[in-house]
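Title: Comparing notes on inverse folding

I've been comparing how different people in this forum approach sequence design from structure. To keep things fair, I'm posting one structure and asking everyone to reply with a full sequence. Here's the target:
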């Protein structure tokens, strides 16, 4: 199970890396390390390129309602981390669904 989670995270990191156009190496990382890595990237986009961040959320299919809720309710000091965590969770969820229905 641990190996499967590592594979899911590695694949999710690859997808997020592609969306953010930023290389992410997942050697020895866990979910928390990935979230810590993504948090400053998300914070930067929130501060300097909000429209690009919204496009990425749309492409990842984060969900407009969920995104609006997070933006409205998350404390400013944890907003970027919360969004980074949601991006990872959504990519992992999509990979699991894809594997389930592809018989992988």
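Reply #1:
Here's my take.
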């Amino acid at each position: 199970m641990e190996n499967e989670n590592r594979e899911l995270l590695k694949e999710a990191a690859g997808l997020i890396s592609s969306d953010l156009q930023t290389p992410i190496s997942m050697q020895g990382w866990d979910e928390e390390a990935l979230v810590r890595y993504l948090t400053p990237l998300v914070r930067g986009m929130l501060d300097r390129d909000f429209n690009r961040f919204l496009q990425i959320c749309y492409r990842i299919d984060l969900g407009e309602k969920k995104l609006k809720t997070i933006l409205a309710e998350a404390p400013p000091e944890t907003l970027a981390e919360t969004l980074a965590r949601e991006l990872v969770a959504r990519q992992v969820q999509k990979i699991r669904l894809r594997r389930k229905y592809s018989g992988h």
